[in-house]
Fold this sequence. Notes:
Layout: E1 5-11, H1 30-35, H2 42-59, E2 62-68, E3 83-89, H3 96-108, E4 113-118, H4 120-132, E5 140-144, H5 158-169, E6 175-183, H6 185-189, E7 195-204, H7 223-237, E8 242-246, H8 250-258, E9 269-272, E10 275-278, H9 283-292, E11 296-301, E12 309-311, H10 320-326, E13 331-334, H11 337-340, E14 346-348, H12 353-362, E15 364-370, E16 373-380
Parallel strand pairs: 1-2, 1-4, 2-3, 4-5, 8-11, 11-13, 12-14, 13-15, 14-16
Antiparallel strand pairs: 6-7, 8-9, 9-10, 15-16
Helix pairs in contact: 2-5, 3-4, 7-8, 9-10
Amino acid sequence: MGIVARIGVIINPDAGLGGRLGLKGSDGLAREARNAGAEERAGPRAMKALSLLANHLVSHDVELLMSKGRMGTDWLDPGLDLDVSIVHETDDATSNQDTIDLVSKLVTEDADLILYAGGDGTTRDIVKAMADNSSGNLPVVGIPCGVKMYSGCFASSPKAAAEVVNSWLNGDLLIASTEVLDLDEELYRDGEWSVRLYAEAMTPSSPRWMQGAKEMVESASEDEIIEGLAEHVNEVLMTKDRLIVWGSGGTLTRIGGMCGIQPTLLGIDATIGNEQVGSDLDESGILELLERHNGEVTILLSPMGGQGFLIGRGNLQISPRVLMKAGPESVLGICTPSKLLSIRALRIETGDDTLDTHYSEMRYLKVLQGYRTTRILPISVD
């Protein structure tokens, strides 16, 4: 049997490097992140997805179109018997121009789908390059590797990406349009949240495995709810022996301000009682606080509207090491009623299979939705 499908593979080796360091993105900061000890993220996650997908690629006679080097073949498991064709090559240092050039090669080689590992910035580069090559209808599937991913063409995890591609190969999924969103990282680092719609992309439609686009959920009528949440946190949680790790986002920023602290809109902060003991913390800073603290620990997180991600999007500083040190059960969600309307389950992707399994076996997690009012939501781990 001849080749049934050609899948182009793109790996942005710089994606997500700044996450655990609290850099709020990797655009223009890859060298700084690596010098600070950042661990590779995109390559290993792409390798995991391809390893899970390998048997299906062979059985479907799929040819992978790849770049030689860090944007592709460097991350292939040598034990996998895959049909790989080299269409591009890079040096060790790569840029978005390499992504654009690789997309042009994939279009020329008649790729049927692009599987890529990166973040929203990578998505923008790919979609623009496809449009420039008159191939805007070429479907894409993203392996989530960035610090924040708002676009709807990402699978919810590397495993989910493998499931989506396999279902697409089987003819079980329709191709549909989704939004390509991105956050301005320069404004993001200055504490301003500016998300824009840049384009639309075609992607296999799977509510089960694809994360969907982030919804910006706001309600002017929720001021009293926010005040009630702040009162609950201040009265019940901010005790003298409890370390609270505050997640990022507008809801927690407003609550923290009402509780007398100076929260970082897009970073991770910490308090013990009424004292703020950490601001804009990276992974190591959180671990240091946990190591010194002997009392109770609560990690306050607010899920992303629409997507429902509680862990794994925009808060990579809350790493597997942090969660294991604090205890997985230390996580408490905070969610306003309007945001709850867009969330069916709390999605968790820690990046650690053992920890993901633990959360999956917990099945449910408590969410604070008002003053002394909680709700139990199911946990979804893909």
